[in-house]
Amino acid sequence: MKEALTLRGVAKNYGPVAALAGVDLTVPAGTLTAVLGPSGCGKTTLLRCVAGFERVDTGEIRIDGTVIAGPGAHLPPQRRRVAVVPQEGALFPHLSVAGNIGYGLDRATRRGGRIEEVLALVGLAGHGDRMPHQLSGGQQQRVAVARALAPRPSLVLLDEPFSALDAGLRAELRHDVREALRADRATGILVTHDQGEALSTADQVAVMRGGLVVQCAAPAAVYREPADPWVAAFVGDAVLLPAVVESGAAHTVLGPVPLAGTFGSGAVTVLVRPEQVRITARPAASVRDSSPATGTAADGPPAGGVAAGGSVADGAVDGSVAGGSVGDRPGTNGSVPGGPVPATVLRHEFHGHDALVALRLADGTRITARILDAGTPVAVGTDVTVHVDGTARAWPA
Ligand SMILES: Nc1ncnc2c1ncn2[C@@H]1O[C@H](COP(=O)(O)OP(=O)(O)OP(=O)(O)O)[C@@H](O)[C@H]1O
Q1: Cβ atoms of 189 and 160 closer than 8 Å
Q2: What is the pLDDT along the chain (397 residues), one digit of tens a residue?
Q3: Ligand 1 center to residue 261 CA distance, Å?
Q4: Dist CA 193 CA 177 (whole Å)
Q5: What is the best residue among 13, 14, 36, 192 to mutate for testing ligand 1's pocket, by most ligand atoms within 8 Å of CB?
Q6: Atom nearest to 20 CA in ligand 1
């Protein structure tokens, strides 16, 4: 696939601060790349260097194969064919919608129906005569996107364009903007610190940390095969556990978990995703023996709403490796692969589509499970068993 944008070793310092520390990134033409990272990691600086608002210190940027920034080269912003959609306030208040979109377009393009075309792409056909103040915030952002697309730029840079909108509107708008870019065969870069937005909207996600792109891959690959434990915890919820690899399985406090891919042996950090973790009500009689709860509803959970045999998933432990010592060789005492091990419910957070259940294992390790059947709260203090489905990823400890 043709490359619309290429960055090689791009560095940008502000005094002692290395805002970009040698960024490598490739954006294929006609795709949307989300640049995702925590505050201060360099996302905006990256965008500003690509747009030409900042000069790079070292490294090289190419657009459609042409060097636009590099040693001795700095093409001014207006000659880069790069359009920017800012967070908000992009429109000229004294110009109509059509006036805003047509601003800067050559006359032939203006007359060729391009304004109506891009308005239709963003779902605002027939709104050309409106003034910006007559539009909602979401509609104004749609016009800003239409204006960016109008001159058919080589690149559209979207700088957290949905951040000022409420959650429902944001989801709708990002879907519509994604479709508009796709329909126009535009190449886009979406800067965001919202993991869900990046995963659901982009063709590839570039994860930034400390001025570097630490991983760039398709959303599913970033989620399932994160480059390191930090990426694992930043892109979604993660249970990170110390473990020892032996005979192809990681022996964790949750029992032996098979590994994705081959791994030698030794101490590792293991990633288990929320949807792999399942909890089952633990009838009082089986509390001591950690066998799976197979009872019927009549056995009931002793203290609340986990249906026996019900499934659950998730584990979020704020990026830190959960407790327990590798030297303990957890899970090597004849336990079944992936558990089950006993746990106690510490907290239940209802999120509508699911719920997060904080759990404490017998050794004090805390993990979080996500219950998809979230209707009935799981009472604090409920005894459950936990087991892990599927395989885990591991990194040398
Ligand atoms: N003009 C500037 N002068 C000095 N330091 C700057 C300047 N712009 C950015 N920085 C610093 O460079 C680093 C990267 O900033 P940048 O704005 O690119 O991060 P970001 O990922 O976009 O953050 P946020 O999500 O908070 O917008 C930060 O440490 C920031 O303080």
Answers
A1: no
A2: 799 999 999 999 999 999 999 999 999 999 999 999 999 999 999 999 999 999 999 999 999 999 999 988 999 999 999 999 988 878 999 999 999 999 978 888 777 889 999 999 999 999 999 999 999 989 999 999 999 999 999 999 999 988 878 888 888 889 999 999 999 999 999 999 899 999 999 999 999 999 999 999 999 999 999 999 999 999 988 999 999 998 888 999 999 999 987 778 889 999 998 888 888 887 654 443 333 333 333 333 333 334 333 333 333 333 334 433 333 333 333 445 666 899 999 998 888 888 889 999 989 999 989 888 756 777 899 999 998 999 999 999 8
A3: 38
A4: 18
A5: 14
A6: 14
Residue owning the nearest CA to atom 17 of ligand 1 = 44
Residue among 10, 13, 20, 45 whose CB has most ligand 1 atoms within 8 A, to mutate: 45
Sign of CA dihedral 128, 131, 135, 141: positive
Q: Which two tokens stand for residue 27?
A: 């954006």
Under 8 Å between Cβ of 209 and 43? no
Ligand 1, atom 7, lies closest to the CA of 14
CA proximity to 268, closest of 247, 292, 250, 249: 250
Which ligand 1 atom is the nearest neighbour of the CA of 193?
A: 25
The answer to whether 88 touches 95, Cβ cutoff 8 Å, is no
**Could you tell me the strand order of the sheet in which 355-361 lies?**
277-281, 383-388, 341-350, 355-361, 366-371
40 C-alpha to center of ligand 1: Å? 5
The whole-angstrom separation of Cα 112 and Cα 359 is 62
Give me the amino acid identity at 61: I
- 10 Å CB burial of residue 1 (0-12, 13-18, 19+) is exposed
Pocket test of ligand 1: the residue of 36, 43, 163, 190 to mutate, having most ligand atoms within 8 Å of its CB, is 43
| Closest atom of ligand 1 to CA, residue 15 | 4
89 CA to middle of ligand 1, Å?
Answer: 20
